[in-house]
Task: structure prediction
Amino acid sequence: MKKQQSLFEMSLERLDRAANYCEVDEETLERLRHARSVMQVSIPIRMDDGTLRVFEGYRVQHNDILGPTKGGLRFHPSTDLDEVKALAFWMTFKCAAVGIPFGGGKGGVTVDPKALSRLELERLSRGFVGRMAGFIGPDTDIPAPDVYTNPTIMGWMVDEYSKLNRGKAPCAFTGKPVSVGGSLGREDATGRGAYFCIKELERLKAWVPAEKTIAIQGFGNAGQHVARLLHHDGYRVVAVSDSQGGIYQPEGVNVPKVIEEKNRQRTLSGLYCEGSVCQCKECDCEGTEMIPNQSLLELDVDILIPAAMENQITEDNAMRIKAPYIVEVANGPVNAAADDILGQHGVTVVPDILANAGGVTVSYFEWVQNRIGDRWRETKVHSRLREVMGDAFRAIHGKMEALGVDFRTAAYVHALERLNEAVASQGTYSYFNHQ
Ligand code: NAD
Result:
């Protein structure tokens, strides 16, 4: 039986593919094939009923040639070291693709956070920092929220880190609550960054928003905000889903109402919203129907936005995807085999390392504000984000046309050229051998 390709192996395949289209030193490639440092810890937590449970935690620093490593921290039952290594690798390329001075890192804990009480979740968050405090830091490796982590959790973590270091260290974490040093505009930055990419496509293709239909898989932080912004501009968001299922309304779902309904219990349940888009069948729209997640991906829409987890579009369903445009708000939702099939069918995939880079970009703005003790207005955050995303989109799109490659390969080439320049500036074989 053929061994299934791991996420990290898939990432290396994408690196090799991009290397065929640019002049890159073999030493750069060799360095990028390996994570710089990997830390695995076990975190013992006293549960509310008095028992002890031990959770596995990971932090991977993939490459720091462009700056301190940066990347989210997820709490998820299926998180493992391979996933975290791949996500850290993608962060290296994401930061390089949009030109921010960070390297790639990522972390996670294998846990179902929804099964923990608030106090257990706080103990786990602080316990993770206790184990990792010597490995992370404002000048070395800076975590942020990702799947099932959020500003409250970042607030606990930065507090624990500050206590352990005997002094306030707000820039050790980003995505914090605004009241403890978070940046305005960080909450919706990932969705907004993807929205700016879609606005670039709109400009290039002369789209009329009201004529375009959209399906979004995943209705958490990233999915909700991109839905809200597109709906506001008149795009027809016809389907949305979350881990419990999805809803479909051909005339367009009432996005603000669905957001309100999904989050209705957030104030009661605190950290996680216990609502689901499924409860919104009657959100002001006659004819809304329930659909399984899988059928959402295969709907006949103009733009498909996967905003949940990895490996959602694979060789098993790629041939049934009807959307001509996919904007990857999630990390790694399309696997390498599916890329080839989609390419053969003329589907344009705006890759994750560009489409969801808004989050890390505003995390960078937060880190800068913390370092200089400043606070930016939200309008400044939005306009600088638009500038970063627009510049990166246009540069990568230009590369795609010049090289005749797909969007993902162009994004990797663009990032790889930056990384190669940094590696070469420190000297490679030819420099040390006077060639
Ligand atoms: P989140 O925890 O806020 O939301 C995740 C959403 O996905 C939830 O609505 C959940 O119900 C849904 N979901 C989970 N499994 C699903 C499934 N099988 N089918 C459909 N929906 C499912 O997480 P988030 O921060 O919005 O992250 C979503 C994706 O975006 C992840 O891939 C993450 O790595 C990526 N991302 C997030 C950020 C950020 O700043 N939050 C930045 C870059 C990339």
Notes: The first helix runs from residue 7 to 19. Residues 145-148, 190, 217-223, 241-243, 293, 307-309, 329-331, 356, 359 surround nicotinamide-adenine-dinucleotide (CB under 6 Å). Residues 255 and 368 are 33 Å apart (CA to CA). Confidence is low (pLDDT under 50) at residues 267-271.
